[in-house]
Amino acid sequence: MSESPTLVTARHFAYVAERTRGDDAFLADLKHAAREAGIPPIWIAPEQASFLQILLAASGAREVVEVGTLAGYAAIQMARALPRDGRVRTIEVSAKHARFARTWIARSDVADKVEVIEGRGVDVLPSIADASVDAVFVDADKTSYQSYLAESVRIVRQGGLVLVDNAFAFGQLFDAHPSDREAPAVQAFNEVMARETRLQSVILPLGDGLWVGVKL
Ligand code: DHB
Ligand code: MG
Fold first, then answer.
1. Which residues line ligand 1 (CB under 6 A)?
2. Minimum-distance ligand 1 atom for the alpha carbon of 139
3. For the segment 54-69, what is each residue's pLDDT rounded down to a tens digit?
4. In terms of DSSP bridges, do strands 133-138 and 199-204 run parallel, antiparallel, or are they unpaired?
């Protein structure tokens, strides 16, 4: 067998996506309603959602914190992987997005497992106790990612997960002059995450790149 890795191409991404269960009717309706409401159509890919569910279920997670609710898609997906007494607390800075997410979470199959906390991540995370959660999923404003990482490492228990979206910086990771103003923040964050000795981490090429870290 060759020791050289397979270069992952767009065709591989499509191949992976085609072999991932897609959204159910409820999540498809949520996405449609979000677009209608003028909410930015930003959500993790179904293959990322599936992988997050696998990680949460395999690790026996109960307490999950998300930074960046947006429409509530990932919060609902993650909650579906938790036991009956599991909980996702999801933090959202936009009142409009929080209202939309609450409405759709209330209609969902995991209404009693998801709590939307309206506020800035940097204000809400400090209210969460040290080593009290099983997993954190960071998917919010990229310029605050280094602050979110510091708080995530603090609130996650040993053996818990620190998961971070957009490691590939919206496809602009290798651009010297990226058009997205948040891309440099992702580039800088990736260097910090790679050197964070309290985590064992790896970037998975799912969606826009998913950091998966476990607290040592
Ligand atoms: C953007 C943000 C995200 O978290 C994402 O997954 C994709 C795009 C954005 O701000 O454009
Ligand atoms: Mg994202």
1. 42, 139, 165-166, 170, 208
2. 4
3. 999 999 999 999 999 9
4. unpaired
